[in-house]
Write the structure tokens for this entry.
Amino acid sequence: MKLAFDPTVHGFAFPNSFENHVGSSLGLHITTHGRCGGMAYASLDFLHNGMAMPTNDQLPPDGTPTADYLLERLLESYTTPAARKFLTYTALTDEKRWFVMPGLHAKTRQEFGHITAELDKGQPVVLGVIKAESVTNIGNNHQVLAYGYEIDGDVYRLWVYDNNFPLEEVALTSYPDDPHITSTEGLGARGWFLQGYTPKVPPYLVGGTLLRETSAADLHVVHGGAAFALTSGERTALGLDVTPVTEIADGSLAWVATAPADGTVVRDRTSSAPAVVYGGAPFALPADTTRPGEIVLAGQTMTVIDVPDGAVANLPTVPRDHTLLREEHDTTIYRMEDGQRRPVASSSVIDQNGWRAQNVRIVPDRALSGLTVGPPITGPS
């Protein structure tokens, strides 16, 4: 089973290549590498709060709110009760010691049950991954986000977002007779464990926040995790004159999405017609004068967000590749590839490719008519 979390959509586009300058002692500068826990936690934060992920594949520099938030979440990940297992599990031998003390392999197999129980509740979970061979190199351990699992007899497999491999699906597998975990990326591990998570809201991306880079005069307003350009006239018209402005470092907006998260419903300030965003592109919805602040699509009630005039037209007209779409009263599912909507031949094709039926986005009837139709997808792609 796999949950709706998709690394190509909900993961960061840049790799976990951070250097953390945590201080100095006796004239020596102390530097650590990576913000894996911060990236795992933050990806869940973005998902829970309906915020679009930035698409920039370059590493954000320290001082930008994105980089600083990832460091903040990394440090918080170490405060969970389960974080002590980075030490205690690293210290274990792979197999039993003295035929009494269970080894890390046995612990890993036990942890699988805890992990799948949480996944069965419908939420991705953060994992601690033991890579270090001893506590002297405990910094080699890792943190990832699990969003699915597979059981094949005694073979246990977890599908994870591994921030060392952006926008990729990675499988970690535990075999009953192998003390080590294998990875589809070829870099194995010694064990895994379930780590706790408490949701948090990235403060710079709260809906309605006004952002301005230090040396810029331009303002942006945030909705759905995306920044929309905001003129002084539009600020007044939208009633945002009294909203304080959050100043961010120059260049920071490069790591804020330009299109809101899937399912965000936006409407130009002077327009009566809202649009729902999927795959970064807007799909027009019929205006409902009886519910001016809401819209109902496929039985789901959505809140309409007013954005600066012209903002909807500035969104991409073609959804990003890999987006799954269907019209409300049509059973045909399409997958966007190379700017074309390709019909998916059957539900079995979705299963064969490891796609998720729950990620099919429903748009109004005839909303897909303007997209070029590509060849059908009839099997594994």
Summary: The first helix runs from residue 7 to 10.
